[in-house]
DNA sequence: AAAAAAC
């Protein structure tokens, strides 16, 4: 069951000569920015430039592969809603237990004692053999919110690191500060007994940290951070990429989206590839829309593996979705305080999502003025304030957190049972069209803040005009779900909703 | 007409 795991890593630590010293980097990385940006554009149009391995060809081959190869679905018929396409003839066996994965005793202890895990979740059972076993192919993996994606790549990073080599061997890039910190904490917890060192690459307060030029090079074996800081560390040669074995993009669809972090991500990837073409790349997210899916498949190596879920099956049944029709903006606040807060007091923590920083501030002030204890977070706050607000929420000192989409993705707080969409998420792309498009991916991610790991949860969408109605029904159609209405002033409706969601007796 | 992220 677990034969293949021993060869590659073990051999390289035991018998191969020590790795060569990092080659001298003559040019500052920042100097190349312009060339790189130009090359990047070309590769996206898939016309020329063999800087990576001819992208246009890859697409064709992948398409053929997908159609011809019967899905090598693993041994569990229940997994049929996850579509797995594996590359080549490598057989993978789904891991029924963590023991099946040939993990070190220290890592197993971390999983059982620190994380209190018993056995791999579905996505873990399928993806971990692909991540851990040679030939360590790249992987694009989609899985439901709260299904344990983080464990997949954190375990991947921890088990691929050679504990005896003090150099960065695993790098994980995340879209927000909060997610980078959270992932670092998970890694430290899971890896507690392994002795593997880690560093969180996010901006620090300039007052209590050395300027980058004076800092020592990073020796940590795993680095997790946000694009800007990682780019900076690489360009100042504080983060060496030559020993990296594994590169992870969390929320990969956002990290590679045109209006996301695509340029940064591609630049980092190219820099790593330049010194180190064998580095394994993992792309994880709950969402990959067709556009970005198409693009990311050209971003990774040709012989990658992939796991996808149908969009209809992404909306968790565990989280019940409702809509409340409010006559105007002001009545949204009434609905929140007079009904949702009133009834939702003992159902756990709540996140209220808003579209803009301004409305986060406004709503925060309104609710505080009315005597409610709420906090709010958005990207314009300084780092200290952001960290403090998240910590208070995690410690349970605050029950209600107002947030922009800074926390829409990945934020894992198991006590969150209620999500309120004060505004529905909108795509900003169609600049000159009059019709608004919902941001389906952000909607799904927001909903996913409740019902972590199969827990109960409810979402209330506050809608107040024709535009909202259309957005809401588009969302329903897209995911093939029905969002039932809770009448604005009906206590009974709210009660029934919370009962149906399993949050109220 | 947005949010995120480096100075």
Automatic annotation (TrEMBL):
Record keywords, A-Z? ATP-binding, Helicase, Hydrolase, Nucleotide-binding, RNA-binding
> Motif Q motif in this chain: where?
96-125
What ranges does the record list as Polar residues composition bias? Answer: 48-57
EC no. given is: 3.6.4.13
Q: Which Pfam families match?
A: DEAD, Helicase_C
Domain Helicase C-terminal as annotated: residue spans: 335-495
Q: Which residue numbers delimit the DEAD-box RNA helicase Q domain?
A: 96-125
Q: Helicase ATP-binding domain: from which residue to which, for each copy?
A: 130-306
Comp. bias intervals (Low complexity): 1-15
Q: Where is this region: Disordered?
A: 1-60
Q: Its Gene Ontology molecular function terms?
A: hydrolase activity; RNA helicase activity
Q: Protein name, please?
A: RNA helicase
Q: What is the lineage of its organism?
A: Eukaryota, Viridiplantae, Streptophyta, Embryophyta, Tracheophyta
């Amino acid at each position: 069951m677990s034969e293949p795991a021993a060869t590659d890593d073990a051999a390289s630590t035991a018998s191969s000569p020590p790795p060569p010293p990092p080659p001298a980097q003559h040019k500052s990385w920042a100097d190349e920015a312009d060339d790189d940006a130009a090359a990047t554009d070309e590769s996206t149009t898939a016309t020329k430039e063999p800087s990576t391995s001819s992208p246009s060809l890859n697409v064709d081959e992948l398409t053929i592969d997908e159609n011809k190869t019967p899905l090598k679905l693993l041994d569990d018929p229940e997994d049929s809603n996850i579509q797995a396409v594996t590359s080549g003839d490598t057989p993978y066996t789904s891991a029924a237990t963590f023991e099946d994965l040939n993990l070190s005793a220290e890592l197993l202890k971390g999983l059982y004692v620190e994380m209190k895990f018993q056995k791999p979740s579905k996505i873990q059972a399928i993806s971990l053999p692909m991540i851990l076993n040679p030939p360590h192919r790249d992987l694009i993996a989609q899985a439901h919110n709260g299904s344990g994606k983080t464990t997949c790549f954190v375990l991947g990073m921890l088990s691929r690191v050679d504990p005896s080599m003090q150099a960065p061997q695993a790098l994980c890039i995340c879209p927000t500060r909060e997610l980078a910190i959270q992932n670092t904490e998970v890694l430290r917890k899971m890896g507690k007994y392994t002795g593997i060192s880690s560093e969180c690459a996010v901006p620090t307060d300039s007052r209590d940290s050395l300027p980058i030029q004076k800092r020592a090079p990073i020796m940590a074996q795993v680095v997790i951070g946000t694009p800007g800081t990682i780019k900076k560390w690489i360009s100042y040669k504080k983060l060496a990429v030559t020993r990296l074995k594994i590169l992870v993009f969390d929320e990969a669809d956002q990290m590679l989206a045109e209006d996301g972090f695509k340029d940064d991500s591609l630049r980092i990837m190219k820099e790593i590839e330049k010194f180190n073409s064998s580095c394994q790349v993992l792309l994880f997210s709950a969402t990959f829309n067709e556009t970005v899916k198409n693009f990311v498949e050209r971003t990774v190596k040709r012989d990658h593996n992939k796991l996808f879920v149908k969009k209809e099956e992404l909306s968790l049944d565990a989280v019940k979705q409702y809509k409340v029709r409010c006559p105007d903006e002001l009545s949204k606040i009434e609905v929140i305080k007079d009904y949702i807060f009133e009834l939702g007091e003992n159902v756990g923590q709540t996140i209220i999502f808003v579209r803009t920083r301004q409305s986060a501030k406004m709503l925060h002030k309104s609710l505080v003025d009315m005597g409610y204890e709420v906090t709010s977070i958005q990207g314009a706050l300084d780092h200290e304030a952001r960290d403090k607000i998240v910590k208070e929420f995690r410690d349970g000192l605050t029950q209600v957190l107002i947030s922009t989409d800074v926390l829409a993705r990945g934020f894992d707080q198991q006590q969150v049972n209620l999500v309120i969409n004060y505004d529905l998420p909108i795509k900003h792309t169609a600049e000159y069209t009059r019709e608004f498009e919902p941001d389906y991916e952000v909607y799904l991610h927001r909903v996913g803040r409740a019902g972590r790991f199969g827990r109960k949860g409810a979402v209330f969408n506050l809608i107040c005009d024709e535009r909202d109605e259309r957005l809401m029904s588009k969302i329903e159609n897209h995911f093939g779900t029905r969002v039932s209405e809770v009448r604005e002033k009906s206590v009974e409706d709210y009660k029934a909703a919370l009962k149906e969601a399993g949050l109220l007796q």
